[in-house]
Design a protein that fits this description.
The structure holds two protein chains of two kinds.
Chain A lengths: L2 H23 L2 H17 L11 H19 L7 H4 L10 H16 L2 H12 L4 H8 L6 H19 L1
Chain B lengths: L13 H7 L5 H13 L1 H19 L7 H8 L6 H26 L6 H31 L8
The chains are: A mainly alpha, B mainly alpha.
Chain lengths: ~160, ~150
């Protein structure tokens, strides 16, 4: 894949990758740094991606996810800032209702397990197929449906509490 | 015709998620459809899963725009240091080579024949180096072992 094409595709994947990284790291700023690092890694070695082995999207998300896991391993205890996830940013009044609804969703997401958050974001937010999810999460394709279903049930339970 | 509901032996569980996501086989889809016709609980679960999926897909889980990512990608920390490094290295190399070459060509201490021989040797080496580098670059693009996990 040509570098220019890859860069364009990566730009389009930025938001989804950021959403995934935020769910793993629990902090939007750390997530943005992680996505930035992932861009740098991939652009440094663009040959590491082989289009014959599948689309760029799950491959890049796997790079982001692995980098986030590395960051968590390096973190000191107590560094996690999941609470920041739920802080609504200032916005126009017209967006208040949406922001409140999203806040409820983010609070509920913060309550379920890390793996469950990841699989929900990959499927329902980023619209990856089950095969792509298996690739991104490095799990057996046959387990995606059951994992996802359990994650959705857990999220629905938390949403019932947090709205 | 009476809509007679049959007793439900067991619920569908994860198949409902697969149905919502369009990841089931035709046979499985048919099974879910038929089951939901007689099972209120699974029908309600199916609706809830659809609502949940729509809510997540419409949510704003990341507020960063594409422009920001484009900017990030072009960020100096990603590209500039490497470009500057290469530029400085090549400029220095060319300067040293140029000074050496001028000194060598205009030197009165070296016989013209010797100059031609040395130019042939170093010119040949440079050509060989170029061909090897070119071959390596072509191989790199088609190397089946290049898919190294980052």
């Amino acid at each position: 894949m040509k570098n220019h094409t890859m860069r364009q595709q990566l730009v389009q994947l930025g938001n989804g990758a950021h959403a995934l990284a935020t769910q793993i790291l629990g902090n939007a700023d750390d997530a943005a740094d992680a996505v930035h690092d992932a861009f740098a890694k991939v652009l440094k070695k663009p040959g590491a991606y082989d289009a014959n082995n599948g689309p760029l999207k799950p491959w890049f998300l796997r790079v982001v996810r692995n980098h986030c896991i590395d960051l968590i391993r390096r973190r000191r205890p107590g560094d996690s800032a999941v609470e920041e996830l739920s802080e609504p940013g200032p916005g126009p009044q017209a967006l208040l209702e949406t922001a409140q609804r999203d806040r409820g969703l983010q609070l509920a997401l913060a309550k379920i397990s890390d793996r469950q958050r990841q699989i929900i974001v990959l499927r329902d937010y980023m619209d990856l197929s089950y095969a792509e999810i298996a690739d991104a999460l490095e799990v057996a394709p046959g387990t995606v449906m059951s994992r996802l279903h359990r994650a959705r049930l857990a999220l629905r339970e938390e949403l019932a509490r947090h709205g | 015709m009476v809509n007679e509901k049959r007793p439900v032996d067991h619920h569908l569980g994860e198949l409902l998620s697969g149905f919502v996501d369009g990841e089931l086989t035709q046979q499985e889809r048919q099974r879910v459809t038929l089951h939901c016709e007689v099972c209120d609980e699974c029908r309600e679960n199916l609706t809830n899963l659809r609502v949940l999926r729509e809510r997540i897909s419409n949510a704003h889980l990341s507020e960063v725009g594409e422009d920001k990512w484009r900017e990030t990608m072009n960020d100096s920390s990603v590209q500039t240091p490497r470009s500057i490094g290469w530029l400085m290295f090549i400029a220095g190399l060319l300067a040293v080579a140029g000074i050496g070459l001028v000194g060598f060509i205009f030197s009165d201490e070296i016989h013209i024949g010797m100059k031609l021989i040395l130019i042939a040797i170093y010119g040949g080496l440079a050509t060989l180096l170029y061909s090897v580098l070119r071959q390596r670059l072509i191989e790199r693009k088609t190397d089946k072992y290049k898919d190294v996990e980052i």
